Amino acid sequence: MQPIFPFHPPVVVALADGRSCFPVRRIFCVGRNYAEHAREMGASNPAQEAPFFFTKPADALVAGSGALQVNYPSATRNLHHEVEMVVALGEGGQEITVDVAQSLILAYGVGLDLTRRDLQASAKSKGQPWDMGKAFDHSAVCGPLKLARECGHLDSGAICLHVNGDMRQSGDLTEMMWTAPRIVAELSRLVRLAAGDLIYTGTPAGVGPLQRGDRLEARIAGLPPLSAVMV
């Protein structure tokens, strides 16, 4: 059968070597994986929480090297930044054990999970889904991916975000309540994972508002930095 309109272009993330790319299948995000961020979002006892997940459409992704142009979304007056480590899967499966999960991780990157906080808060207060607070156009930003065989599997290292030169978020990967393998294993209990899946692993405390024209510099030790400007 012939398509009635052209296929949409594939969504990819560049690898740090500049020669290869990672075809994106799905984008998953884990919520409140750093205790201090969980507390700033109102959780009273985050250490007792189990991992929970939400998704973003693949075409919400803005990826590449250099200063990425990120469109400021409509319908919000309170857009928030969240710097996160991104895990890229080279293999998948279901009901994966924690021991096996690490072997599925192909690469790591620096990402930004952007949130229309006012829409999210309004939906939460009404008991409604908060997809439109999280899963809008340009809501997932990702820098170049570095292969795990080159950087090792990351479970420690500084993570930070500067906005217009000022430090907004600062932490360490050791502060994650659920490690990357644990996240992969838990998520595989809910859905069948596959090569091409990206998982955003949560953000440290310090999330806050962005404006048009803001310049963001996100870094995780051992990974290529992410630069972006809100337009």
Provide structural commentary:
This protein is of the alpha+beta class and 231 residues long. The protein has helices at 35-40, 98-101, 117-125, 131-134, 148-151, 180-188, and strands spanning 12-14, 21-23, 27-30, 53-56, 61-63, 67-70, 79-81, 83-89, 105-113, 115-116, 140-142, 146-147, 158-163, 166-172, 198-200, 208-209, 215-220, 226-230. Strands 3, 4, 5, 8, 9, 11, 12 and 15 form an eight-stranded mixed beta sheet that branches. The protein has a five-stranded mixed beta sheet with strand order 6-18-17-13-14, with no helix packed on it. The protein has a three-stranded antiparallel beta sheet with strand order 10-7-16. The mean pLDDT is 95.
Which helices and strands appear, and what pairs or packs with what?
Blueprint (H helix, E strand, L loop, with lengths): L11 E3 L6 E3 L3 E4 L4 H6 L12 E4 L4 E3 L3 E4 L8 E3 L1 E7 L8 H4 L3 E9 L1 E2 H9 L5 H4 L5 E3 L3 E2 H4 L6 E6 L2 E7 L7 H9 L9 E3 L7 E2 L5 E6 L5 E5 L1
Parallel strand pairs: 3-15, 5-11, 6-18
Antiparallel strand pairs: 1-2, 3-4, 7-10, 7-16, 8-9, 8-15, 9-11, 9-12, 13-14, 13-17, 17-18
How is this structure best summarized?
With 231 residues, this protein is α+β, with helices and mostly antiparallel strands.
Taking the alpha carbons of the first and last residues, their distance comes to 40 Å
Count every helix, treating DSSP H or I runs of 4 or more residues as helices. Answer: 6
Unreliable stretches, pLDDT < 50, 5 or more residues? none
The structural class is alpha+beta
Helix content: 10-25%
